[in-house]
Structures are given as C-alpha cells and as structure tokens.
C-alpha cells in the first residue's frame, strides 16, 4: 500500500474517526487511501490499532484482495498490535466464500504463530467451512484434531458434524448415530439438528424415517422451522405423496409458520410433474396474494407444467408476468416454451421466440444444448411443412451461425420444400452442405432434386437430345 495523503487530519486523530471514514467509503481503493493517509500520521503520534487494522482487512477480503489482507496481518505482527480472533476469522470465512478451504485452514494455523489462541468459535467456523465445501474427509480429520486439542463438544459443533455426514447417503447412518448419542454426551438436539437430519433423509428418499423424526421433533418440544417443513414437503413431492405434501402446507399455515417462495415453488413443482398444473396455478395465486415475489424457479416450474399439458396461452401469460417483474427467461425456459409451441404445431411463433432468444444474446449451456439442437431442427422442419421456405432457410442459416448441428431429416425437409417451390439453386446448395457435414442424402432427397431439375424445360430438352445421341450411337453400325 502506498502512503498517498488523501485527507487533512486534525491533530487529535483517533481510531474511531479513521474507522468511521473507512466504513462509510464504498469504493475499496478510496478506503485504502484513507487507511494509508492515517498511516502517514504516525509521525504525529497516531497508531493503527486492532480496530482499524481489522476493519481494513475485512474490507479487503470482501473485495477478494487476499494478498493485501495478509500483508496487513504481517504488518500488525511487526507493529506488535494486539490480534483478535475475529480478524483471522474474517479472512478464513472469506476464503471459504471463494471455495479455498485449504487457505482458510492455513490462516487458522497462523493464529497460533501470531500468539492468538483460537477458541471453540474458530474451530467450529473452520469445521463449518470444510462441511460447506463438501470436504468431508478433511472435515472429519479436523473434527478429530479438535478433540485432540481438547476442544469440548458443543451443540453447534455437533450440528456442523451432522450436517457434513448428511451430505452423502453412505454417511447418513453415522449422522443418525451422532444424533442418538447426543443426549448421552449431555447435549439436547435442537430444531436445527432435526431439520438437518430430515433434510438429509428426504434427499436420499428415506421419507418414512424423515416423517418419524418430524413427529419425534414435536414430542421433544422442538418447533419445526419453515426450512424443515419445506424439506419434508420436497421429500413427499419426490415420492409422489402429493396429498400429504398439501396437508403439510396447510398445517404450516395453521401453526402460523409462513411458507416462503421455496415452499410454494417446491409444491408447485410436485403438482406440475403429475399433471396438476391448475392446482399449481391456484397455489401461485395464493402465494402472490401473500405478497411473496415468485422467483425464476417458480416461473420455470409453472411454464414447464403448463406447456406439458398444452396450456400454451396460460404459459405465455406467466412468461409476460415474469418479464413485468424484471426477470429474463434463460435458455432452458425459452426451450420449454419453444418445445410447447412445436408440440402444438405453432412453428411461426416458435421461430419468433428463437429469434428473440438469439437477439437477447442468450445461449444454451451444456445442460440445455441437446434440447436446443432438437427444437431448432423441429422449428425448421415445421416451417417446411407449412410451406414457408424463406423463413425455414433463415432459421437454418441462424442455426449454422450458432454452431447448432442440422439433422439429416431437416436437410431433407429443406431440399424437398425448395424443390416444390422451384428454389433449385438453394436446394442444391443445401445438398452440398449436407454432404460436407457427413450426412448422406437418402433416395427421397436425391429424387426431389433430380426430379426438380428434370422438371425444368431446358434440362429435359438437353437430356432428351443426349438420349437420342446415345441411342443413335449404339444403333449405328460401326465401320
């Protein structure tokens, strides 16, 4: 960091003044200049303390400037400044946020190097980072290390361990074992413990066990949260127990536990998957009535369900509503709409949506690519069946420019369509591109193009003359 002076400080510059200025400055570079200009006041007796150091470190890691933050740590050490556990933890958590758990552990070990003894809070924070990053082997090793270091169990550390064990089906039983042993160790499971286990069991399809635990939760005086209810509703939907899932939503409301957007969207998804989109729409109305803003998942679920049931008009109305909310459809959502339009033989509208998607710069990703190859080809073939060669050719060129492969059937449809409309040059061009792409034209494609040329007067006359010449040559006696 440089020592560029930014402000004129009063003679009695204080740590709280510096903190206030750094805190209110949104621009990280300007915040650094404030910190540096305060450093320039060292000649007047001012010294940065753990508060100003800690604050600038927090600001730096929020902006992912980790190297600069670690340089400040070293400077604190050089200046014999008092360290606090929270300064180290702010760096550890920031490394966790950017998926660098090993760096979080490295900073954790620096605490002892810098004579700052980590408490249970730090150990649990590192354990939570490892679990959050799905580094389960590392988390279990760290948990053993905690015990070796004499760190006593706490409800928080046990909850973090259970959360980690609930991430894999193979360690689910171990999570339940830890849970059952908790009372023997003097710890009473709380709502978070039950919620984590119920979520894990639902994720791995163990719905009956999840339901038992949910009942037990009530008898132990633990109130289920909206997250617990949502996990169980999701599990019930996955196992097609939709009536139970609906009952659970009603139970929530009766107990004054307000369902959130995820709860409603989860149940809507379950209903749409079994063809109950009208019921899902009713739920959508209730949700909006409670002033809850639908998200992309909500809209995508409804549009997909309505399209599958051929309710295109309703699907397009939901799409308009989504746009009014300022949300833009992604490639997956466009795919669902276009597929629905193709299924209803509305190829012109489908082509318009494809154009809109391309103009919006929305490209399919690895997951949605195969769907978009399918629908692009379907749209071109559909336009050919509607005898709209100009629009079909336009869509074909658009496909080629975007690297979307053309299927053999689509090539054949284009050739046949242009031959019928007298566009033989375009048909020949398409056959050439078809061969270059490694597609072998079938008999119908060859017949269409040869028949097209044969139908032209000049081509027929030339062929007939050639036929006469050839016949004459074979019949004339050779000398």
Explain what you see.
With 479 residues, the protein is mostly helical. It has a domain at 162-255: Serine Threonine Protein Phosphatase 5, Tetratricopeptide repeat (Alpha Horseshoe), CATH 1.25.40. It contains 26 helices and no strands. Helix 14 runs antiparallel to helix 15 (261-273). The protein is extended, with a radius of gyration of 34 Å. The mean pLDDT is 87.
Unreliable residue runs: none
Instruction: Name the helix and strand elements from N-terminus to C-terminus, one letter apiece.
Output: HHHHHHHHHHHHHHHHHHHHHHHHHH
The whole-number mean of residue pLDDT values reads: 87
- CATH C-level category of one domain: Mainly Alpha
- Give the tally of β-strands: 0
What name does CATH use for the topology of one domain? Serine Threonine Protein Phosphatase 5, Tetratricopeptide repeat
Calculate Rg over CA atoms.
34 Å
Q: What coarse outline follows from CA principal-axis ratios?
A: extended
Question: What is the count of helical runs?
Answer: 26
CATH homologous superfamily placement of one domain: Tetratricopeptide repeat domain
Terminal CA distance: 104 Å
**From the helix content, strand content and strand pairing, which structural class follows?**
mainly alpha
The percentage helix is: over 70%
Question: What descriptive keywords fit this protein?
Answer:
71% helix; mainly alpha; Serine Threonine Protein Phosphatase 5, Tetratricopeptide repeat; 479 residues
Concise structural overview:
The chain has 479 residues and is mainly alpha-helical. It has helices spanning 15-24, 28-39, 50-62, 66-78, 85-97, 101-113, 120-132, 136-148, 155-165, 172-181, 191-203, 207-219, 226-238, 242-254, 261-273, 277-289, 296-308, 312-324, 331-343, 347-359, 369-385, 389-401, 408-420, 424-436, 443-454, 457-475. The protein has a domain at 162-255: Alpha Horseshoe (Serine Threonine Protein Phosphatase 5, Tetratricopeptide repeat), CATH 1.25.40.10.
């Amino acid at each position: 960091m440089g020592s560029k002076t930014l402000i004129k400080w009063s003679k009695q510059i204080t740590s709280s003044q510096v903190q206030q200025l750094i805190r209110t400055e949104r621009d990280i570079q300007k915040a650094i200049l404030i910190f540096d200009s305060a450093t320039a006041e060292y000649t007047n007796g001012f010294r940065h303390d753990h508060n100003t150091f800690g604050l600038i470190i927090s600001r730096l890691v929020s902006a992912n400037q980790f190297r600069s933050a670690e340089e400040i740590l070293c400077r604190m050490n050089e200046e014999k400044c008092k360290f606090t556990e929270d300064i180290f933890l702010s760096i550890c958590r920031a490394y966790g946020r950017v998926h660098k758990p090993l760096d979080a552990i490295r900073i954790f070990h620096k605490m002892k190097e810098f004579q700052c003894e980590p408490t249970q809070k730090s150990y649990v924070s590192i354990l939570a980072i490892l679990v959050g990053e799905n580094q389960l082997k590392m988390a279990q090793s760290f948990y053993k290390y905690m015990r070796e270091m004499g760190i006593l169990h706490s409800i928080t550390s046990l909850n973090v361990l259970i959360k980690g064990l609930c991430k894999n089906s193979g360690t689910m039983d171990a999570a339940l074992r830890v849970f059952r042993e908790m009372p023997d160790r003097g710890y009473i499971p709380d709502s978070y413990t039950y919620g984590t286990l119920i979520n894990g069991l639902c994720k791995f399809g163990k719905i009956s066990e999840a339901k038992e635990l949910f009942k037990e939760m009530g008898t132990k005086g633990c109130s289920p949260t909206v997250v617990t209810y949502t996990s169980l509703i999701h599990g019930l939907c996955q196992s097609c127990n939709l009536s139970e899932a609906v009952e659970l939503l009603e139970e929530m409301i009766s107990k004054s536990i307000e369902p959130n957007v995820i709860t409603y969207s989860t149940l809507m998804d379950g209903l749409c998957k079994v063809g109950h989109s009208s019921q899902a729409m009713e739920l959508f109305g209730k949700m909006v009535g409670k002033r809850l803003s639908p998200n992309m998942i909500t809209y995508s679920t409804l549009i997909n369900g309505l399209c599958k049931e051929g309710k295109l008009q309703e699907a397009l109305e939901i799409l308009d509503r989504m746009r009014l909310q300022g949300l833009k459809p992604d490639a997956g959502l466009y795919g669902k709409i276009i597929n629905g339009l193709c299924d209803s033989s509305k190829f012109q509208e489908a082509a318009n949506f494809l154009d809109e998607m391309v103009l919006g710069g929305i490209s399919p990703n690895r997951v949605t690519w195969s769907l978009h190859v399918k629908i692009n080809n379907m749209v071109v073939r559909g336009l050919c069946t509607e005898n709209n060669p100009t629009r079909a050719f336009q869509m074909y060129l658009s496909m080629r420019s975007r690297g979307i492969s053309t299927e053999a059937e689509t090539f054949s449809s284009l050739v046949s369509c242009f031959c019928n409309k007298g566009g033989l040059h375009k048909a020949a061009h398409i056959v050439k591109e078809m061969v270059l792409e490694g597609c072998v034209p079938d008999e119908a494609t060859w017949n269409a193009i040869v028949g097209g040329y044969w139908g032209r007067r000049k081509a027929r006359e030339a062929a007939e003359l050639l036929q006469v010449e050839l016949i004459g040559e074979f019949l004339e006696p050779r000398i």
